[in-house]
Amino acid sequence: MKRLILKRLLQLGIILLSVSVAVFLLVNLAPGDPAYIKLSAQGETPTNERVEEERIAMGLDQPLHIQYFSWLGQVIQGDFGSSYRTDQPVINTLLKSFPYTLVLALAAFIVMLLISVPLGVLTAVKKNSLADYFIRVLSFFSASLPEFWLALILLYLFALQLKWLPVMGKGELKSMIIPAFSLGVVLSGKYIRQIRTALLEELDADYALGARTRGLTEKTVMYAHIMRNASISILTMLAMSFGALLGGTAVIENMFMWPGMGRMIVEAITWRDIPVIQGFALFMAGVYCLINLMVDLSYGLLDPRIKIRKESGQ
Amino acid sequence: MSILEVCDLSIGYGKQRIVRNVSFTLKKGEILAIVGESGSGKSTLLRALIGKTPGGGQVNKGEIIYENQDLTSLNQTQLRKIRGKSIAMIFQSPGGTLNPVRKIGSQFIEAIRTHIEITKAEAYHKALEILTKLHFKNATQIMEAYPFQLSGGMKQRVAIALALALEPDILLADEPTSALDATVQKKVIDEMLELRKHFNTAIIIVTHNICLASYIADKVGVMYLGQFLEFGTAEEILLSPQHPYTRALLDSVPDLSQKKTLTGIEGQRYGFHELPSGCSFSNRCKEGGVSCKDLVPPKTVSDHGHVCICNQLMNHRQDRNAKK
């Protein structure tokens, strides 16, 4: 197990390194002179002399690979540079806004789980029944809804008409309900179907038939046999959805003035705040990799075949 | 005393009838082999006996009498109490009935506790007992193992043990050895024979291997397109087969001592949707007449219960008597 974790961490390092190259090049190849952008972001008039001074101060006169390595050296020490606009260290901005996004994503994820797991199981068990068709049509609709549209409807209903919930807030629980629901419901439309498919694949497997011929109830067959076998593919899907949620809350965050990363990055892009964009991209890549790693390690808990293979080092 | 009686059973998918008018009786401790090509309805018949016809198949007609009740009239809840406890089943893929992600022990305990109310510890001991009775040397280790840690033959033997955990009256075996190699096959078959000795379990074994059938069975049913074309004791079927199809099947078995050329059975069988009104084997039969296709073959039952469904039966008998 230790060897596996080490191996995975090494892989993670390599992935992050390649992401860093891409991020670095992307921003540097984008049109516009970073020094010029920085000066105008800070409200200075970018005269030719000032731009030239700033270019030297920022090290932009150096060759590209030297720029990259000095940047990388700082990044490894946790220094993503300072925002062009606020002059604050990027890492502080990231760490300040990440918890908000994490909480929102978690809430949306829970909403999604609460909707899609029971309904996914129901549609699989009652395959081709009226309930199955109804839920599948419904899930098709919810998957096709834009989340901001759903958010607007919910806002109108629960905040403006019924006045149960605030229109927007600064991170307290009550103000999170509508955004979390908008994200969760839309996502659940997709996962109801995926969970249904994952379970249907196992429904007629030999071991399920075997369990039935031993006289087990359909319920036991479903929960103790089929669900356990389908859990790996379901877990993988769900974990990927969580990653997608973390990176995909920008529209909703902006609508609700939610102080998370989504709003931060939209602002950064508007101002062409390059260090923040770079920091965000690297940070999200790291989070994705970590989620992947955790999913990978949890496979062993769910499937003894994987665990034992790993332990014997094959 | 017969323990299972199947009368005139027909099973269909929509309009197609996959099993047609099958009748047989099974005594306690008796082994019946159902032989036939793939797609002849053998597995469907077997699965129907525990009310688990695959994918939408339905019993159209007939009765399955077990302990004075007709199984075709029971609902799934009632059938569930019989499944595993009185009638158990094993399948072709070695140990395919075992859940790959759960320990063998837990599957034993679960199966036992489904039918009798005992504690986990008691169920565990009962499982160990069964495994020991079936000559597993390291029963405790097997209980702790996952199915993938065992070899194919071992898995199939464990699957048999699991099916027998509650000492059922009848074991249904759907091609239990087809996926195993020859040496392991023999071991599994011998084990099934021993079962019968120990527990007096009646066994219905479905196979396309007529040699295997002759080795293990007391009675043999030869199935073709959903019908028992011939049914009788293993001896009769093998030594004096009456139906042309049975003879053709036997001629297709390689025999090293005689170095004969294998004849095989030529032609394509009818599809279930294009069955003729007469004999379903008529298009491949070498001994049949022109009218076989349209003439419904009579069911001839001899004094001691040998059944044969053929139009030409009388002619064949006369021919062979003349040769003698």
Task: Give a structural overview.
The complex is a heterodimer of chains A (314) and B (324). Helix content of chain A is 77%, strand content 0%. With 314 residues, chain A is mainly α. Chain A has a domain of 169 residues: MetI-like (MetI-like fold). In chain A, α1 packs antiparallel against α13, α5 packs parallel to α13 and α8 crosses α10. Chain B is of the alpha/beta class and 324 residues long. Chains A and B meet through α9, α10 and α14 of A and α2, α3 and α6 of B.
Per CATH, what is the topology of the domain at 96-264 in chain A?
A: MetI-like fold
What composes the largest sheet of chain A?
none
Radius of gyration of chain B: 21 Å
The beta-strand count of chain A equals: 0
CATH architecture heading of the domain at 96-264 in chain A: Orthogonal Bundle
Secondary-structure element pattern of chain B, one letter each = EEEHEEHEHHHHEHEHEEHHEEH
Task: For this entry, give a set of tags.
heterodimer; A: 314 residues; mainly alpha; MetI-like fold; 77% helix; 0% strand; flat; B: 324 residues; alpha/beta; four-stranded antiparallel beta sheet; 11 helices; 23% strand
Task: Compile the SSE list and pairings.
The complex is a heterodimer of chains A (about 325) and B (about 325).
Chain A: H1 2-29, H2 34-41, H3 48-57, H4 64-76, H5 90-125, H6 130-144, H7 147-161, H8 177-203, H9 206-213, H10 218-247, H11 250-255, H12 261-270, H13 274-302, H14 304-311
Chain B: E1 2-13, E2 16-27, E3 31-35, H1 42-48, E4 58-66, E5 69-70, H2 76-82, E6 87-90, H3 104-115, H4 120-133, H5 139-144, H6 152-163, E7 170-174, H7 182-199, E8 202-207, H8 210-216, E9 219-224, E10 227-233, H9 234-239, H10 244-251, E11 299-301, E12 307-309, H11 313-323
Parallel strand pairs in B: 3-8, 3-9, 6-7, 7-8
Antiparallel strand pairs in B: 1-2, 1-4, 4-5, 9-10, 10-12, 11-12
Helix pairs in contact in B: 3-4, 6-7
